[in-house]
Amino acid sequence: MDFSDADLGAVWLTLRLATVTTVLLLLVGTPVAWWLARTRSRWKGPVGAVVALPLVLPPTVLGFYLLVAMGPHGPVGQLTQWLGLGTLPFTFPGLVVASVVYSMPFVVQPVQNAFEAVGDRPLEVAATLRASPLDRFFTVALPLARPGFITASILGFAHTVGEFGVVLMIGGNIPGVTRVVSVQIYDHVEALEYGEAHWLAGMLMAFSFVVLLALYGFRPGRWQR
After folding, report:
1. Which of 2, 4, 92, 159 has its CA 20 to 30 A from that of 105?
2. Spans of the chain below 50 pLDDT
3. Which CATH number does the domain 5-223 belong to among 3.20.20.30, 1.10.3720.10, 3.40.50.1820, 1.25.40.180?
């Protein structure tokens, strides 16, 4: 069976969303993970809990509050309007913001665990060689934590691909703008187009299997030699 133009458009939009979200998550999540791994602040627990909230919150609850926050009367919406950017809901940038929030723990936690596994000893040795804190981070911590970044990238990308509740709340169902694969499957089922739904759902199932196979077959030692 051939995919329709709408199906292909949804696949392309999903891949684009997952790629942009994963890159942003690595940029935003890395300093958060480093702080959580190294700090002894009393705020570590609350910050860690906020980062992990998407793991336990229903996607519709998270999507609802993001919709309120980014709406015309919400704090984020008022800020974006003041900057001349309009409002984010029902736009691709809005999907990106929602996806970053929703997939945050899937990137931060593996990177945090990797930073914690590095320990203090390599950084202390680098310090004795007069390496600055920034130099120690980029030349010691990051290379040693590479397995965590690989895991985080895979999980963040895969989790974004499988989103439904959050993207539907924030993006709605606009073809070519916010209609991702999961929403396209929902549309097929609503129209009783089970054959088309089977093809897209099977594709996502195969993708999920490959992701899990990669994660379970991943051996950090191979990257640390």
Report:
1. 92
2. 221-225
3. 1.10.3720.10
